[in-house]
Amino acid sequence: MSQLALGERPLDELVDAVTERTDEDPESVRRWLDPFTDGGTVTPAAVEATVTDVSQIIATAETRADLATRARESASDAVADAPDLDVVDVRDREFDERLADLREEVQALGAALGAATDDLDSPVRVYRAAVELHDITTDAQNVVRTAHDLETELEAFEAWLDSADRRHDGLAADVDAAAESAESVAETVASLREATDPDRARRFDAAVQTRVLDVVVDDLRAEAADLRAWAERDGADFPTDVDARIDEVETEVAASAEALADGPSLDGEFGDRLDELDAALSDVEPPVAWGLVDETVAEARASASADEPATGPAASDDTGPSESGRAVDRNGAR
Fold first, then answer.
1. Region 141-163: what's the mean pLDDT?
2. Which of 11, 134, 177, 219 would be 288's cystine partner, CB 3.0–4.6 Å?
3. Which residues pair with 37 in a beta bridge?
């Protein structure tokens, strides 16, 4: 870190200098500079102490990332003993990608710290450094949380790899979640059919959810097939009712979609967005990359609602399993 070239300066003096050169509010500037002050004076020692504090948080982020890396290595050993199935491979690849992103974020923290504390040779530069150090602290704390979550999920993934019961219980829980979502959509559709003037935004959202549930059903079938093959390889029992329960979800979703289709057509922006969503989801095949699907669905919802705002309460986002937990399940974290 370069030295505070200004030496010790009264806080009031720096606040005045910064506000003269920027459009910032004086009280806001004062708050940002507070960590750099000691007894109403901005001092090199206070700046150095702040940088040290930020460095320690970054070090914690690095440690958490190292622990996540070790958990990844341990899970990789378990993957090596698992059969070559999509249900394993998709989880394995997602963890690789997430860990790579995490390591990149940690590396960026160190570079940002160096840039933030370089050339503290003007009041504005000192102020900008204070703001940047705060942002770096926030980013580092987020990395710590992300790394901790990743480590926990990797440990759960390893346990999932090592236990047929965990795998089967997880699949059953996902089918339960899909069934609950299908039931919720059916209730929404029934309410819409009873309405004299059904809200277009709610109809659009229900239509989106039926489409996403179709993808969920396909994904559940593919996962069930892989887990059944795995169980047969290991001589383990596989739940006998899974396929029938998935069929029930599919039937209920199809009924909801048919009921929506029997109502007034969704034209305009809502209709266009549904057409675009249909085109995007038609290319989705199991094992589903739920992060991309969620982004596609979120974009369709946001774009449609921006052009045709709802006139009544829209269906809750948490009634459909689009953002449904399939991504969580695929990581083996329960």
1. 97
2. 219
3. 42
